[in-house]
TrEMBL record:
<keyword id="KW-0964">Secreted</keyword>
<dbReference type="GO" id="GO:0060320">
    <property type="term" value="P:rejection of self pollen"/>
</dbReference>
<dbReference type="GO" id="GO:0005576">
    <property type="term" value="C:extracellular region"/>
</dbReference>
<feature type="signal peptide">
    <location>
        <begin position="1"/>
        <end position="26"/>
    </location>
</feature>
<comment type="similarity">
    <text>Belongs to the plant self-incompatibility (S1) protein family.</text>
</comment>
<dbReference type="InterPro" id="IPR010264">
    <property type="entry name" value="Self-incomp_S1"/>
</dbReference>
<dbReference type="Pfam" id="PF05938">
    <property type="entry name" value="Self-incomp_S1"/>
</dbReference>
<protein>
    <recommendedName>
        <fullName>S-protein homolog</fullName>
    </recommendedName>
</protein>
<keyword id="KW-0732">Signal</keyword>
<keyword id="KW-0713">Self-incompatibility</keyword>
Length: 134
């Protein structure tokens, strides 16, 4: 092999090594589904704090006003928890579970006075959790 073809092989190897990990990472961070959380607490209750996380991703605390929606992405096939606090009330629930929700593109949560409700179509709802008071 001449010096020139050696160089070509070397550069090609470097290119493969540089691009491979980023494509693997790119696949890892493709959004698998969206989590929607809507604050439907009674008028006058004020904004709530919502935090959603998995073992790998933590979206941090967000303030969500009355009637407003918070949205975050599911990045890994893992369980995502969300927790919400409003004054002395607090709730936490499994916002995304791969086995339960893995086939859909979105999971909808409605936070109302009488509980935490799940929907896959933003139209029919099932109560999954209730508020706790410390
Ligand atoms: C879900 O439905 C509510 C009420 O119809 C609507 O306001 C909201 O925009 C919908 N959310 C999404 C993400 O489609």
């Amino acid at each position: 092999m001449g010096a020139r073809s050696c160089l070509v092989v070397f550069l090609a190897s470097v290119l493969i090594i540089i691009t491979l990990p980023s494509s693997v990472l790119g696949r890892q961070y493709k959004q698998l589904a969206a989590i929607h959380v809507t604050n439907l607490m009674p008028k006058g209750s004020g904004p709530m704090q919502i935090r959603c996380k998995s073992s790998y991703t933590d979206y941090g605390m967000h303030q969500v006003g009355e009637g407003d929606e918070y949205q975050c992405g599911v990045r890994e096939r893992a369980v995502y928890y969300c927790m919400a606090t409003l004054g002395r009330q607090m709730a936490s629930w499994h916002a995304f579970q791969p086995r339960r929700d893995g086939s859909g593109k979105a999971v909808y949560w409605m936070l109302k006075d009488d509980g935490i409700f799940l929907s896959w179509d933003n139209s029919s709802w099932v109560r999954k959790s209730v508020w706790e008071t410390d």
